[in-house]
Amino acid sequence: RKEVEQDPGPFNVPEGATVAFNCTYSNSASQSFFWYRQDCRKEPKLLMSVYSSGNEDGRFTAQLNRASQYISLLIRDSKLSDSATYLCVGTNFGNEKLTFGTGTRLTIIP
Amino acid sequence: DGGITQSPKYLFRKEGQNVTLSCEQNLNHDAMYWYRQDPGQGLRLIYYSQIVNDFQKGDIAEGYSVSREKKESFPLTVTSAQKNPTAFYLCASSLGGGRWNNEQFFGPGTRLTVL
What we know:
The complex is a heterodimer. In chain A, 0% of the residues lie in helices and 55% in strands. Chain A is mainly β. In chain B, the strands form 2 sheets. In chain B, strands 2, 4, 5, 6, 9, 10 and 11 form a 7-stranded mixed beta sheet that branches. Chain B starts with a strand and ends with a strand. Classes of the chains: A mainly beta, B mainly beta. The interface between A and B is medium-sized, with 23 and 26 residues.
């Protein structure tokens, strides 16, 4: 079983809709989680950090469920510019290393 | 401007040649990392360094070597022993020190193609 698992998609969503991704992790010692956004042929960029139960930033909400070992990302009022691959990331014990999921590809349709 | 730079952006190499990828950061971060990304796969850790003059192997270190002589610099050498070196190589840095807020920030990447 992979340490961090994501539905690869693709998710094709109409503009203005709400979309949610889930990500499961197997390492119960993981302390911190992150969502990164990666555009085609570009580097990943940090979208949100999740340290406790969740985090909210504008249209983006991340929630962490330690009991069920999953993290979710909710995007409200989706924009064309939200089209990208979203990477779910967890840390190892000691927070030295990150473990990346393979990403969920999102396309917002006009 | 603070950030991470990688050079070159594109690199072509003949089979059997060693090549060194540059990574520099001016964020005063202690920790630096090298990943490779292949199509359809997540980022895989090659090497990482928590402090100057120290580094550890990641999950796929075979065929690669690194050095960390300066805090700002963490070059990666792809040797001829690496069986399938064509990939997108990403360098990252973070505050390190096992902090709980250990977000990593990435450079723009180097695309290496072996001809």
